[in-house]
Amino acid sequence: MTVLSLLCAGPSEYQGTGVNHEGENFVGTIRIQKLLGGEGLILHYEAKLASNEVAHAECTLLAPDMTGTLTLWPLMSELPGILTHRAIAQSEAAATFASGSRDDQSAFREEISAAIAADGSLTYSHAWGLPDGDFEERSSCTLRPL
Questions:
Q1: By C-alpha distance, which of 126, 124, 138 is closest to 17?
Q2: CATH number at residue 7
Q3: Which residue, of 36, 84, 100, 144, has the greatest Cβ tally within 10 A?
């Protein structure tokens, strides 16, 4: 099993709470759209503040690349384009995907992690660093199936 197969076999909607990089609490929702019988999926993620303002919106393709490496292609409201994130760590129920080395301060770099717990909850996290900045976990949300 992989995170991809677990997400394709599991619920199609999740909701929960998280904290963003500015320390603001938010309500997160994730919708899973299975593609081609589970060969991939689109993850629709949104984080809304208490004011109902959308703090983050993301539409992410998760699928193996041509080498078989599990890969994320996220389109995010804060970024001007897509950064490819390849799996750098995986277990049966979790994966971390990176767009570059966390130590490379010459560029923006990001890691996105997804983990499914035994109770079926999904934790979705973003860690990143700006050029010349520190790399840190910035946002995390734990969501439960609806």
A1: 124
A2: 2.40.128.20
A3: 100
**144 Cβ partners below 8 Å, 6+ apart?**
14, 15, 16, 120, 121, 122
**What are 34-73's pLDDT values in tens digits?**
999 999 999 999 999 999 999 999 999 999 999 999 999 9
Would you state the pLDDT for residue 98?
Answer: 97
pTM (2 d.p.): 0.94
Count Cα neighbours of 117 within 13 Å in the Cβ-side half-sphere: 10
Domain range for 97 is: 3-145
Would you state the torsion angle of the CA atoms of residues 129, 21, 88, 3, taken in this order, to the nearest 10 degrees? Answer: -160
Residues in the chain: 146
